[in-house]
Amino acid sequence: MINMTTIEIMDKKMLLNGAWVSRDEYMEIRDPQDGKLVGTVPLANLDDVELALEAAVHGSERARSMPIHQRISILRKAAEELENRVEEFARVIALEGIKTIREARKEVVRCVETLRISSEEARRIKGETIPFDQFPGSENKVGYYLREPVGIILAITPFNDPLNLVAHKIGPAIAGGNAIILKPHEETPLCALMLAEVLINAGLPEGALQVITGIGSEIGEKLVTDSRVRMVSFTGGRLTGEKIIKMAGLKKVSMELGSNAPTIIMNDADLDLAVPSCVSGAFWAAGQNCLHVQRLLVHSDIYDLFKERFITFSGSYQVGDKLDENTDMGPLINEEAAKRVEKSVDEALANGANLLMGGKRNGNFYAPTLLENVHNTRLCYEEIYGPVTIIESFTNFEDAITRANSVDYGLQAAIFTRNLETAFKGMADLNVGAVMINESTDYRMDAMPFGGTKGSGLGREGVSFTLMEMTEPKVACFTI
Q1: How far apart are CA 117 and CA 115, in angstroms?
Q2: How many Å from the N-terminal Cα to the C-terminal Cα in the chain?
Q3: pLDDT over threshold 50, residue 3
Q4: FRET label pair with 287: which of 65, 85, 94, 328, CA 20 to 30 Å apart?
């Protein structure tokens, strides 16, 4: 077991052209909890971007020529090494980011699964024969289609899941025979670099992976716009995603851009299940989660009871030191983020909302918060990205569906009910990428298709679905 009280400064290098390189200029990675220095990484410049792009061109050729059994072997070996280093990786996730040590361990375990699924899906890249004689005059033709790598993929990843969301892009990219350039979030690059080390140790060919560390506003545009990049896979904020789409030009894009997730609690719901699920979904990773339970729509028959039990259950939440095994919730990623959450809550309160619990900021920490009577403020229609949830009552299920669909997001929604007809109607009528029945909106399995409608993005992640995005069909037709 690793001693969680021991903190060693990590001086990491970035991966360019098969080599680990440093730079005179560097970025300091600090623990958002207390500002302590956790590590340093190189501050990449535009010359480094060009080096990464040139290396990726050659790396793409090597990745493309890798037989599938080699891709499988690399991903399996990486998963095995990561599984043997869960505590080490969890500690780094907790130190550089916003997760408690218990939350971080779960992320590492999920990352192992993501790599294993990627290895399995590599063997399922299949094509089909095409019956050309369905068209008159083509009776003397036979053929098929297969799937080929896209080429060079740019992956831009967020701070809230700094390991597993990296794996959700790198794993399928390797499985599909692509080269990938990874730009991790500037505040949480350490575990991404550690994962790259694991993959190199597992035998990944030189140049198949570049990890470039730097400021997105300084190096992002060149990476996104370069014609050698054939796909951009981005997970992050909507405004940044929209800028990337405008810049990308004629290439594939995959965008996961967040949400304002609604949960409907029917009057027949099992509250012993619904309350803890919703509390966890509201305050996991301090609400810095695109699947965060932001809106609770509760049937009027049970509104007061649900509200009381939600507040009581949340009251046991411990906020504090991320490395303490008893801590349930850590800080926001930085003070700016905490102040933004504070401003949104204050705005709601100024417009007549009632504060039921929380509502206090202490540096980068913000208390688990529940509000009611929230109307026409940002909390109603934007993504809060913090530990704040609003609650409101309804009497008519159709009205609840209408309210759930009223925002310009559609990632995931949830319904708690014992009625099968209600569940199926909600599944049909909610305009989202996934509906969770008797489960929180923040549930995600790494093999399922993941993505949303409207402002929540484009495309789907989930290993097999990402793999389809990262490969392209190619037709072979023979005249006989």
Answers
A1: 5
A2: 66
A3: no
A4: 85
> Which residues are designated catalytic?
256, 290
Backbone phi, then psi, for 54, in 5-degree steps? Answer: -65, -45
Contact 206, 179 (CB under 8 A): no
Q: What DSSP element (H or E) covers 293?
A: strand 293-299
Q: What is the dihedral of CA 450, 275, 423, 449, to 10 degrees?
A: 10
Report how far residue 357's alpha carbon sits from residue 188's, in angstroms, rounded to the nearest whole number: 30
- What mean pLDDT is predicted for residues 241-254? 96
Output the pLDDT for position 8.
81
Residue pair 459/433 in contact by the 8 Å Cβ criterion? no
464 backbone dihedrals φ, ψ, rounded to 5°: -65, -30
For the chain, what's the residue count? 480
The C-alpha atoms of residue 116 and residue 351 are separated, in whole angstroms, by 49
Provide the 3-class DSSP secondary structure of residue 59.
helix
**Spatial separation of the C-alpha atoms in residues 35 and 56, rounded to whole Å:** 35
Enter the pTM of the model: 0.95
Supply the mean pLDDT for the chain.
Answer: 96
Amino acid (one-letter) located at 269: A
Please state, in angstroms and rounded to a whole number, the distance separating the CA atoms of residues 248 and 232.
8
Q: What's the rounded mean pLDDT across residues 83-99?
A: 98
The CA-based angle 266-272-273, given to 5 degrees, is 70
Would you say 160 and 98 are in contact if contact means Cβ atoms under 8 Å apart?
yes
153: which 2 tokens? 């993929």
Closest C-alpha to 262, from 282, 280, 235, 236:
282
What is d(CA 179, CA 370) in angstroms, rounded to the nearest whole number?
45
* Interatomic CA distance for residues 411 and 314, integer angstroms: 25
Which stretch of DSSP H or E encloses residue 93? helix 86-96
CA–CA separation, 91 vs 4, rounded Å? 7
